[in-house]
Specification:
Length: about 140
């Protein structure tokens, strides 16, 4: 390492610094992929008052939908909202030209939910978290 740079763990990361890292990698990838960049996707569930009750955050990129976050508050669960969010995200991904979808989940989160929606386990990492497993799932979109 040279003396002109310092490597350090940031105890309280600055959100602007985190965004700069994401932006830097996005620009690097785009230079190697004909300019293609992720197009983000947000689907929400709101109470009648407009309060956020949950949603799905993902991105379409390189012909894939990647589901990054799917969360519903406790009162909105088991009412079909999760299924509606996934269906809307997949429909939008198809509209954007995606043929496949990818998601990761921990064993205590939503593995049966995704399998019920046609996702197939592609890989499993045992011990992540300790005593559990992390799954990567893929679905071919119709």
């Amino acid at each position: 390492m040279s003396d002109e740079y310092q490597v350090a763990i940031e105890a309280e990361p600055d959100p602007d610094d985190m965004q700069a890292l994401v932006q830097g990698l996005t620009e690097f990838n785009a230079a190697h992929l004909g300019g293609e960049v992720p197009e983000y996707l947000l689907a929400t569930v709101r109470e009648a008052s407009g309060t956020l009750a949950g949603g799905l955050l993902g991105a379409t990129y390189l012909g894939w939908l990647t589901i990054q976050v799917l969360w519903l508050n406790e009162s909105a669960r088991a009412r079909g909202h999760g299924s509606a969010l996934v269906a809307q995200a997949e429909a939008e991904a198809l509209r954007r030209g995606c043929k496949r979808s990818f998601v990761e989940t921990l064993d205590f989160q939503a593995l049966p939910f995704y399998e019920k929606h046609g996702y197939v386990v592609h890989s499993r990492i045992d011990g992540f978290p300790p005593g559990g497993a992390r799954y990567a799932l893929i679905k071919e979109l119709a």
